[in-house]
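User: Okay, second chain of the day. Same drill as before: sequence in, structure tokens out.
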Amino acid sequence: MRKFLLKSAFLVSFSVFLFACDKSVDVPSYIVIDKIDLTVDYATQGSDSKDITDAWVYIDNKAIGVFQLPAKFPVLKEGEHTIDVSAGIKLSGVGETRAPYPFYTIYSQKVNLTKGEVTFVEPTVSYSSFAKFAWIEDFESPGVTISKTSRSDTDLNVVLIASDVFEGNKSGAVFLSASQNRTRLELKSNEAFVIPTAGSNVFLELNYKISTTVAVGIFANTPSESIQQAAVYLKTTVNGSGNLEWKKIYINLTSVVSPQTSAKDFNIFMYAETSPEVPEPVFYFDNIKLVYQ
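Assistant: Same drill. Structure tokens below.
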């Protein structure tokens, strides 16, 4: 028995020695990206609110991978290299459809990688020069650029209570009540926007806090009719503790706008109703942005 144990110990030690001497085993360098920040020109681009969930990483123009933030990942490189990082989002809030946000710039930096050591990268992006803002509504100005339609039995309010405001001093809010015959909400942008069709990127950014489903989409205004089409259905933001929380979404309108080649312009709409399950729903909105290329 003693001989067997000694023999086993020798074999293990010899194996470790051989492994340590095996030059074919690569030791990686490590990169850490905790978050991706956003800088804006508030006067022309609105809030710096964001929900950047992923880092799309390239080193020396070669794809390394897509990493959910915060991220730490190995790379089999050392020395000086160029790292490029694109800010990734969930398209229309769907976790299975992740992509770089087309209106954010790509962050680029020279890094010096060392095997076995960690390099911290702190990307900051901004809106690309080609991003055009057709509409920005942050509810801070005296006038509001979105209003109820004739189908809505409830008005949009501007609230100033700190616990209900996302940021700044004000947010938009709607309160439905089945018991008070306020059962339907439909909001529409006051302005009809001329935005490109035929495949050009069109996104609606939005901060929201809601207790029941809200449809968001477009009115495509042609010379003969106005075609209403939903692009996404926002789900309730009530969390596991039963509290409402704010969320940010990047709604991809491209697929509903592009086919409307005969439309002369577009309005944005939001629609919701009471239900037996949620008879007194509340809705809060902020930082609405219509961005296109």
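Helices lie at 2-21, 42-45, 254-257.

User: Thanks, on to the next one.
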